[in-house]
Amino acid sequence: MQKSDLQKSNLPDVPGVYLFKQGREVLYIGKATSLRDRVRSYFDDDLIATRGPRIVDMVTKATSMVYHTTPTVLEALVREAALIKKYMPRANVDGKDDKTFLYAVITEENIPRVLVVRGKDIDFKNLQVLHPANYQLQSIHGPFPSGAQLREGLRLIRKIFPFFDTPKPVIAKSKQNRAQIEFNTQIGQYPRTFDAKEYRRTIRRVMLFLSGQAKVLRKVLAQEMKSAAEKEHFEEATVARQQLFALDHIQDVSLIKDENRYPQKSTVVGNGGYRIEAYDTAHLSGTNAIGVMTVVEDGVPVKKAYRTFRIRGFQMMDIVSPSSDDGLTMSDGRRTNDDIASLKEILSRRLGHPEWPLPKAIVVDGGHTQKKAAERVLAKAGIAIPVTAVVKDERHRPREVIGARAAGISEADAVLANAEAHRFSLARHRAARSRGLRSK
Known about the structure:
Largest sheet: 7 strands, mixed
Mean pLDDT: 80
Structural class: alpha+beta
Distance between the termini: 67 Å
CATH superfamily of the largest domain: UvrC, RNAse H endonuclease domain
Number of domains: 3
CATH class of the largest domain: Alpha Beta
Radius of gyration: 25 Å
Number of strands: 15
Strand content: 15-25%
CATH topology of the largest domain: Nucleotidyltransferase, domain 5
């Protein structure tokens, strides 16, 4: 294939899976946070350095590429594994065997468990786990190219459809296991009241999802919701509705981070070698205010470049002015948003370090107001760096990304950088607060 062939595909900037083909033969299958950006990366000049000769050979031989969009990165993860199992493409599996990959398996037990097992420990013919103990299996799902992504994916699935993943079988008749079930329900890991029949139904849903049949699963849940509502079983209908919603809206921030760390090229638009800086603040009742800067280069967090700023409450009038038009003051002069003032302070102090390389883009936590505040600081310093803002919902999950395309970065990279800044700011704030408590 040639780069010009991609123009015919009109690839969308959404999650999904893609298949490179030579005639009717599937050569390679991959998943993407952004189909547009990921597939474009296969036609970069430095492909052989980033992906190796096997992938270069695959792209050269490919005569076409097809793709399927998915609502979430999580769904793309399981679709990729199901398609690899179906087609076993050469570029995915050459040089490997079943023993190399990790699989998600569901045990054949009274109370089934969902486990992660390496291929070398599975008897595929007889559906058994051989090590560390001999377990009969209902189903085997995979192979999954990344073990870290598989484990993170199961953690997300478990939030929607709670299941057991204990190393040892769950025996409901045992007092110890009854206590274990009771404890897990209290911390929200399993259904509030354990019902074996309902749990088996949950396991069937997990099996459908892991098999890459999320569309079928959605139909099943929609039918159950409608049936329960007609029977006025409103609690059951509500559970089904919540699960349907979660399937389409579960946040994939951790999977996005993992995808950018593992052997796929970053989803950034344009040339490689880019640097993104993200900023966030954390404080408790106006005390122990901490601001942070995190750095992502080529889709990978560079922790040695992270910086922490203790918020001083800048008095510099050219940075935070009571007469400014950025919505920082009320009629009586009080601040309406200390976070914006803190953002302007830490960004101004960061620009006082010319020895730090300037980024390709800056990511801030918030909406248009935070984005404009950062842009004003940059403009005053005479520095032209585009700013992207990540808007959160009421549960602090990414809801919208503003300005990523204009900044020349992907939304996935903006979310990754923002997530790193939020994580790091909370960690540094907790450390500062702990030191303050110990000193009293």
